[in-house]
Amino acid sequence: MADNNQPIYILPENVSRTIGKDAQRNNILAAKTVSDIVKTTLGPKGMDKMLVDSSGNIVITNDGVTILEEMEIEHPAAKMLVDVAKTQEKEVGDGTTTVALLAGKLLENAETLLDRKIHPTVIVKGYRLAAEKSLEILNELSLPLERRDVLKQIAKTAMTGKGAEGNKNELAELIVNAVEQVSLKDEINLENIKIEKISGESVGKSELINGIVLDKDKANADMPSKIENAKILLVDFSLEVRNPESEAKISVSTPEQLDSFIASEEKYLRNMADSVILSGANTIFCQKGIDDVAQYYFAKAGILACRRVPRDDMEKLARATSGKIISNLKDISLDQLGVAEVVEEIKHGENSLIYVRGCRNPKAVTIVIRGGTNHIVDEIERAIKDGLGDVASVLKSGKVVAGGGAVEVELSKRLRIFARTLGGREQLAVEEFAHSLESIPETLAENAGLDSIDILTELRKKHEEGGVNIGLNLFNNLIEDTFFAGIVEPLKVKTQAINSASEVATMILRIDDVLVSKGASQRGKGMPSGMEGME
Q1: What are 417's strand-pairing partners?
Q2: 3-state secondary structure of 197
Q3: Judgement on whether residues 330 and 465 belong to the same structural domain of the protein
Q4: 179 vs 49, 89, 100, 153, 384, CA distance in Å?
Q5: Are residues 150 and 114 in the same domain?
Q6: Catalytic site residues?
Q7: Which residues of the chain have pLDDT under 70?
Q8: What is the pLDDT of residues 359-391, one digit of tens each?
């Protein structure tokens, strides 16, 4: 008779399993750790992080998603927070630190409910009710976009604390002008705003080019460096002798045959160059190569040519200059050419950039960012991208909310009122959700060196008295109407953050069993970092 006490193994030896409370606690701890990492970067007084990779490359930033990406996080639950931050960046372009902080706080507060023997499914239900109610309240609290200067305030709020403090007025103007230029009715594609970075000059010399700037130089030194009243030909095929599609051999037995072969090549290239010259084009952008012989003829005709231009830059050039990308020389005609006031090559140190300026009503533009060092330029780029995302999302939705923690405190107050209408233990989960929202103004105050308890108490008092837009103005450390003070954020940033944070928190809370396969190549031949010893 078989021994009933003998253990039964159903999993391979290289798989470890964590179940029940241990699995929940480990996942919550991992999420809280990620949240704590980015917490100190929130707000205009937030600190920066220095990230150094294995090659010694340095990134200095306080952009939430950049920090999380550069850290190469391995814990599976922590990776879920990184994915949420990436989604926030993709959808809105800003609010990545907010969503990571909020998700971590939701899980931290859920842990206190778990300690009180409240089942995870009850907490999940409460959090879902709270998230749905939050979106309703946010729509009630939102204000319509009525003035253009509000767009500038939104851009400035997005860039605050990201190294662009001294020049945020000028940069905000560039951002708003760029977004307005590329917008088509209700459609705004930020891919049509190209960003070029130049290190070595002050941030204040950044500019918006009504056209495209290419990190390229002219194909031949004898070509002109500047073309005025440019007629631009865009071609996506090579201006070279075509190679046969299959391998071919040419048999030459006499010098005359060789001369004839070379002459026929030159004649082909000459005819190709003549076709371009006769079209009236004085500037050429080619997606592929340009033969040296063709370059010679173009230079002789006073044409500026640029080769091996990336496909996405070719498409931006077409949108900026109103030109058409040609795939066959026979299609060249005057109405296919793009136009610009000036095309010129400008040297910046050892590098050259080609500027296509003065396009008529361009639907693709370029923001040229300048800064003292590469690190500064990179951080300004991140700030500008946040500003672009915020301005674009406001133009799409047409709604804004007060910043400085004002909307979170008002949400928290109304959610507590909503919780009293619920029966059962879900009420406790809704209250913890409301408490989690207050972590935003609390963290803003902490990062500014203020007493977070005093600030939060005062904010609650003002909101109980009916001050819907009362928040924390960290430029003067006063509690006031932040909307009136120009601290404004897009509604979309808040709705996306609450949606994403609540979804990832509820997903992690529902996990009660973690199976991890130990790959031989993983660190310590064990589980992902942070999960070792969880058997």
Answers
A1: none
A2: strand
A3: no
A4: 30, 17, 27, 14, 11
A5: no
A6: 63, 96-97, 386
A7: 1-20, 163-165, 185-186, 241-265, 513-535
A8: 888 889 999 988 878 888 888 888 888 888 888
